[in-house]
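Running co-folding for zinc ion.
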Amino acid sequence: MIVGERCDIKTSLLFLTAITAASELGVKVLFLTPTPIQSLPGSLQDTLANLNPDSLKKIKFMYPRSREELLQDVASLHECACGPSAPYSLIIVDGLERYLGVRPDSSPQPEDQSAAAHVSALLADTAAFLTRKLEERGGAYAPCRVIVSFDVGLQGHSGGESLLCMDPILSILDRYFSVRCTLDRDRSSAAPATAIASDKQPRGVWMVYFSGVGVTARLTAGKEESSIMQRQWRLAVCPNGALEFSPMGTDE
Amino acid sequence: MSSFLPAVAEELLREIRNVYQETSQIPDEILLALKFVFGPSALHALDLVDQRAVTVLSSPSGRRVYQVVGGSGHLYTCYTTCHYCPCPAFAFSVLRRSESLLCKHILAAYLCQAMGLSQQETVTDQQMSNILCGKAGPGT
Ligand SMILES: [Zn+2]
């Protein structure tokens, strides 16, 4: 699950993930989003142009417009999981908040929490089913994973992490998605508004944190007990739109 | 879906499975432990077990889902690999207040599975899709 304030960077990250999974891992990807992706950063367009068309065919886009349509599309995935073509190994939902009817101006209602749980549980149960199907086929492309992005209305807030802890919808999503990846705009290193846009200045810098029971479990199971619980990365959006990751802190 | 349960609850369900297979009943100390771990929903769940309220639906694709008939005759669809129930108690005590681990319907599904008392029913793939998204019951 990718969490952060409203921004296009999450869509770019998800799209990059879809392309990487399809071209490098050779797995089938389902990309669900309420609206077709209008524009892509330049770097992604270059990547796309150089991509083997067969890789792109592994990504299927669907545009459910409402929560009902999303539920229906996900619920019927099992129907074609037994056919000749391989089941999906990656299900991506971009902009989950748009399916949950979360309004930025009012606090979420109990129904919104139930709806968030329903969508998340159906995604998780479907992934578990597709994982079983992938394993029956030899397991090369198993397991099936789910990645969703979720906007939180943090525009203009500082101390985002404490707000994230209290978000009632996010606390529901945390039950079903074991890893949370938080994107936090790094305002300190942002270029001053008056500066002339230079070719070398990144367009935006984001702090990327990994947290959740999935991360904690992996850290305690592995040899990485000594490292801090949260993995932190710095993500810079270059002037040409390329995304540059660099590890932060004592972590690697 | 057992990975969603704490170890003590998993252990308890294993014990119920073993004891029930041998003796076809649940001794008092296990009933007490059930109440201790799951709270008041334990007794309601056992009522549902008595009423054989849990059906495992499966479709040709291999997809499975639980359907539990609640006290009022309402049909609740619960997934087999993670915790979700559309009932008000799940929304309130589990999701909103985080007071309980699960509602009586999900617990009844666990218990029926452990005791081998679930009904089995087959539906078409399309019916399964409708049931999974909470639209319809089987053949209704
Ligand atoms: Zn329930």
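Result summary
Chain A touches chain B through 30 residues (CB under 8 Å).
Residues B 76, 85, 87, 89-90, 103, 105 surround zinc ion (CB under 6 Å).
Job closed.
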